[in-house]
């Protein structure tokens, strides 16, 4: 792998929608800068630099106040780039780490000190070589009590994921709703299966995110996504958080306009009350609970 890729829009539009004061982009990443924070030798994609300066400029452009930076797979289990993003944010970012399950308790404490509030288990074979459930469970038990676990999987393995998810000893957040086929509509098989998962535990949350990934064939303005996801946000409004997914890893062939991504918010959360929960109250509970 030698060629570095750009997966983000160079000049995103200004959204029509204005997020409420204190709105949090609770799913985004930083890439590098590579000279300071090299990518993992196991990385499945090699991006151009998308560092904190670009992320914070986008935050301001889109009308957001804070970020939650999720460690991206291209940085493996070395969280230095994500910790750097948090450190230079002036208190306006926190993060989700990816760890080697053999991590020591002292190292977990250092991650907390650096602003991490959760860890991510990634089950996408195109992104990671292995996902050892037994080792993940062991480290999950050693996390601080107020941390949560972010999991990323695709709808075709939801059934086999159920026992593992049921055993997780912390609040769970499912990335991109476990990537349902949104073209099936709000009552399709994938959405039904995901609702069953949400109903199995009151502390399973989700991100109604990535219209660009989940409705790629139809494309912007991603109408299938809006139709399938709005009822889920309405029915589980205390259990969802939202993010841009910038810099949109692996989306170099269908780069979304971030302004349009933000304009999806009022389509899936049509009232001010829902928007407040999705963008402020819910993510504050996970990432800045001491301010509530
Ligand atoms: O940004 C996302 O959430 C989704 C990703 C990238 C990713 O998860 C990672 O690199 O860790 C994807 O589907 O390629």
UniProtKB/TrEMBL annotation:
SUPFAM superfamilies: Metallo-dependent hydrolases. Belongs to the metallo-dependent hydrolases superfamily. PDC hydrolase family. Its EC number is 3.1.1.57. Residues 1-16 have a biased composition (Polar residues). It comes from the Bacteria. This is 2-pyrone-4,6-dicarboxylate lactonase. GO terms for molecular function: 2-pyrone-4,6-dicarboxylate lactonase activity. InterPro entries: Amidohydro-rel, Aro_Compnd_Degr_Hydrolases, Metal_Hydrolase. One of its GO terms (biological process) is 3,4-dihydroxybenzoate catabolic process. The keyword ATP-binding does not apply. Residues 1-21 are annotated as: Disordered. It catalyses: 2-oxo-2H-pyran-4,6-dicarboxylate + H2O = (1E)-4-oxobut-1-ene-1,2,4-tricarboxylate + H(+). It holds the Pfam family Amidohydro_2. Residues 24-287 form the Amidohydrolase-related domain. Keywords: Aromatic hydrocarbons catabolism, Hydrolase.
